[in-house]
Sequence to fold (27 residues):
Amino acid sequence: MVRSYQIKASASMKEGNLNTPGPLSSL
Fold:
């Protein structure tokens, strides 16, 4: 589960974390 979340966050960051600005704040 954690792995999937990390991968999703990584992809979001690459895309521009425009879809998920939440995880970035957590990091």
Remarks:
- Helices lie at 2-15, 21-26.
- The chain has a mean pLDDT of 63.
